[in-house]
Amino acid sequence: MKKIIKFIFCLALFTACEDAIDIDQVGRITTDVAFQNLQDLQDGLIGVYTKYDLVQDIAHSSTFTDELSVGFISGGQRVDDYQFILDATSLPAFTFWQRSYEEINEGTRLILAAESIPLKDGEQEEYNNILGQVHALRAYSHFKLLSYYSTDLTDDNALGVIAVDFVPLISDTFPRNTNAEVFSLIETDLQKAESLLQEQSSVTFISKDFITALRARMATYRGQYGLAGTYAQQLLDRYPIASREQYINMFLDSGNAEIIFKLERTRGDEFDRAGNGVSNMASQSRAGAKFAFTNETINGGPFFEIGRSLFNLLDEDDIRFNVNVGPESIISPDYQNAADFENEDILLVYKYPRSETQPLMNDLKVFRSSEMLLILAEVAADGDNINGAANSTASYIKQLRDARFTTEQPLPSYANQTEAFAAILNERRIELAFEGHRFHDLKRLGTRANQGVLRDPLDCNVVGVNGACSLPATDHRFTLPIPQAELIANPGLREQQNPGY
Questions:
Q1: In this predicted structure, what is the pLDDT of residue 271?
Q2: What angle do CA 349, 355, 357 make, to 5 degrees?
Q3: pLDDT tens for residues 66-99?
Q4: Residues 127, 41: contact at Cβ < 8 Å?
Q5: By three-state DSSP, how is residue 210 classified?
């Protein structure tokens, strides 16, 4: 029984571990056979990239928070997430844990395999570039784990996750490391990556700019605003904010303005799936398939729609309205008094309409310069530089709005820090809608902005939702529980389960 339990642990935390028993299986492909030259290593790198996805983040963040409302043809898709039902057996708890450690394991195996590959003349630079990308991806996966499973990234002593830079044995079990210990491993990987990588060559492959963007986001989440501002400004100097036309092209995948890094999606790849079978949050699919069954139109099966509280923040003169709201939407001018709200007010999600003529499929934007600009706004707010025409929260938000609206926008003014942080949260809610940020933003900034999940009352009272309307940012469910599968396999973690579960 002991071996069985430890094998379950291996599957939950390290999905590509050694076999449960020491048998040299017939036909088994070992690392030294799979990777014999630089081309094999390049193929392995592509394999690592295929482990990375954002649709699960998009699905959970948009459903659990206030970005969505239940669609008029909903069949109960993701209703638990919508009702804030979350425990150690829930799909989000297992999904982010399992997927992230699978990414880490695949990357580590490639790093170890590279040690035995003989290089020919002229291959060292490409070899270094491959390894640099894998180290950076492993750092990204560890940070994602921290963002979901650590209660407070600003506290280095708080429990983080299990830091892994090796392939574990089945007999291995580990406690959680502290945030400081995990961030130390992340920084080691980033330093290694930075020493190996060349300059930016493509927004679909890891570069030094990816490292800078990851450091900017990490520093922001940790409350290290001095570092965050430095990194964010470096990227803004290289990646100007997109114009209105460029903004549309960016989300139609016909332009890369302001994109620092994205995950490319194409027809026929392993993510090219739609239909009822992929509507849950865990499955790989086209991004738009987390909101509709077949396409982006009103007849395409929209089982989720834009939440009214988010829609009410949008302005028709703002290009983000066009990008987020489907042109076939039915917008009730007096929705609060509509006789049949569900059918008279249908707000279609349009962030992922189609690419390569494939409905609901678009590239996934991981880092954009608009996020960096909003980081600067946050840096200014933390330093109480909330008003003024330059280097202030107000000025940075105006700069973004000027790029998104048809006309120059007025300089806002905020009464205090709380109001400034609320403005930042609202601007991030619009700019980064349906990109997987809202869940983390409320967790880390909600108390400073006096803002939590707040749906429109009419979005809370549809059949099957049980009035789930609001959730304060202090709620324990903004930190995911260690999944039950991991607790069974690694019982020592039971004493390290997150509060509230």
A1: 96
A2: 105
A3: 999 999 999 999 999 999 999 999 999 999 999 9
A4: yes
A5: helix
Closest CA to 138 of 34, 49, 217, 203: 49
Task: Report the C-alpha gap between 321 and 311 in whole angstroms.
Answer: 8
Q: What does the alpha-carbon distance between residue 398 and residue 402 come to, in Å, rounded to a whole number?
A: 6
Q: Average pLDDT over the chain, rounded to whole?
A: 93
Residue 318 bridge partners (DSSP): 405
Give Dmax over CA atoms of the chain in angstroms: 74
Interacting residues of 311 by C-beta distance below 8 A, sequence separation 6+: 325, 347
3-class DSSP state of 275: coil
* pTM to 2 decimal places: 0.94
Going by C-beta distance under 8 Å and a sequence separation of 6 or more, which residues neighbour residue 472?
A: 446, 452
DSSP for 352-419, please give it: S-EETTEET---EEEEEHHHHHHHHHHHHHHTT--SSSSSSHHHHHHHHHHHHBSSPPPPP--SSHHH
Q: Please say whether the beta carbons of 69 and 150 come within 8 A.
A: no
DSSP line for 128-156: HHHHHHHHHHHHHHHHHHHHHH-S-TT-T
How far, in Å, CA of 209 to CA of 261, rounded?
Answer: 8
Mean pLDDT of 358-386: 98
Burial class (CB in 10 A: 0-12, 13-18, 19+), 181: middle
Q: In terms of Cα–Cα distance, which of 458, 381, 392, 366 is closest to 418?
A: 381
3-state class (DSSP) for residue 444: helix
pLDDT, average across residues 324-340:
96
Q: What is the pLDDT at residue 17? A: 44
- Name the 3-class secondary structure at 107: helix
Q: Integer distance in angstroms from the first to the last C-alpha of the chain?
A: 27
Q: Which residues have CB under 8 Å from 452's CB, separation 6+?
A: 442, 446, 470, 471, 472, 473, 474, 475
Element (H, E) at 263: strand 259-263
**Number of Cβ atoms within 10 Å of the Cβ of 208:** 17
Q: Is the dihedral of CA 182, 183, 188, 189 positive or negative?
A: positive
Judging by beta carbons within 10 Å of its beta carbon (0-12, 13-18, 19+), is residue 462 exposed, middle or buried?
Answer: middle
Rounded CA-CA distance 350/49 in Å is 26
Alpha-carbon span 219 to 231, nearest angstrom: 9
Q: Quickly count: other Cβ atoms within 10 Å of residue 470's Cβ.
A: 14
Tokens of 115: 């040690």
Distance CA 182, CA 179 (A): 5
Query: Strand, coil or helix: what is 316?
Result: coil
Separation of alpha carbons 216 and 378, rounded Å: 12
CB-based contacts of 236, cutoff 8 Å, min separation 6: 369, 372, 373, 376
| CA 439 – CA 222 distance, rounded (Å) | 16
